[in-house]
Amino acid sequence: MAKFSNLIAYFSNLATKHKSILHSESEKHFFRMEIDEVLAGTMRSDTAYPFLALEGFSYDFTDNRSDNLVKNREGGFILLDHISDMSDFAAIHQKWDELEEIGDDLLLKIKADKRDPVISVVNNFDFNSVKATLILNEISKTVGIRYLFTINSAMSNDVDPSRWNE
Questions:
Q1: Long-range CB contacts (< 8 A, 24+ apart) of 158-164?
Q2: According to the lineage, what is the superkingdom (predicted)?
Q3: Is the pLDDT of residue 20 over 80?
Q4: I need a surface site. Which of 36, 70, 124, 153 has the fewest CB within 10 A?
C-alpha cells in the first residue's frame, strides 16, 4: 500500500510533466495545500499559474465482516489559475474550460498509470468516486476546479510481531 509521501511525489511528477503546468524548482506550479487555504485566498509569493495543489486525505476502513480489510483514502487535488478581471465572465469560463481539459488529462494519465504495476501509488484509484467542483475566489482573483477521489487499498490482517513488546 502506497504512503502519502508516494502520492505527493506522484502528483508532483504529474505537474512537472504536463505541458500546461510545467512545475519546476525555478517556477513552482505544484503545492501541498488544503481547500481552506485556497478559499481563504492564501497564496504563496512564489506561486506560478496554473498550478496543481494536492490536498491531504482522510480515511476509513471497510471490513464487510470478512478477512478482507480495505483502507479507503479520500483525497483531492485542485487546479487553479489567476484571472485579472473577475467581472469578465467569458475569461472565467475560458479558464474553467482550460482547467477542465488539464484535469481530464491528469485523470487519463492516472488511469493509464493505474494499469502499470510499477506505479503502485494509484493502482487502486477508484474512478467511480471522482467528483469535480468549480472554484471562484474573488479574494485571490483565482478560478479553479477541485477534484475529490478515493483510493481503496487492501490491507494485511496480519499483526507484525516486530512492532509489539510481548
A1: none
A2: Bacteria
A3: yes
A4: 36
Over residues 65-123, the pLDDT tens digits come to 777 888 888 999 999 999 999 999 999 999 999 999 999 999 999 999 988 888 888 88
Average pLDDT over residues 134-145: 94
CA pair distance 49, 87, nearest whole angstrom? 19
Owner of C-alpha cell 487546479: 79
Q: What is the rounded distance in angstroms from the CA atom of residue 56 to the CA atom of residue 75?
A: 6
Domain boundaries, the chain: 4-154
* Distance separating alpha carbons of residues 14 and 136, to the nearest angstrom: 24
pTM for the model: 0.89
